[in-house]
Amino acid sequence: MKKPFGIIMISVYTAFAGIFSVALPVNGFVADAVVDPTTIEWIEFVASILVGIIAFAVCCGLWTMPPWGLWLGRIYYSASILLSFISVMILKPKEGFFGLEGLFMMIEAGILLYLFQLNRSTKRSLLNYRAESLK
Q: pTM to 2 decimals?
């Protein structure tokens, strides 16, 4: 079965998100390890590793296209939008939605809409693939 272009792009985006969610905190943690990391830094480090592992699982699930992959992708991007919204409202209220967080929220909202429409339409999906072939 030929993969839809949207699934390929979402898988690549999710893989890069997983890489950056692991690589950036590791870099910061190694820099802080010289100074003696605090408990908050340890928690942040472990949480970012877990988010990276979940992102890789979502990427694999979307790439292989089993039913659990679509389900996990929907949950992952719903949680990502919710956490980004909370982050903007609580941690960065002066920046608002006009920074990178707002851009990523828009991209992830588009991804979430695409993932929800895959099995909804009985006629055609957004990219002109029959919805039955995507189940």
A: 0.74
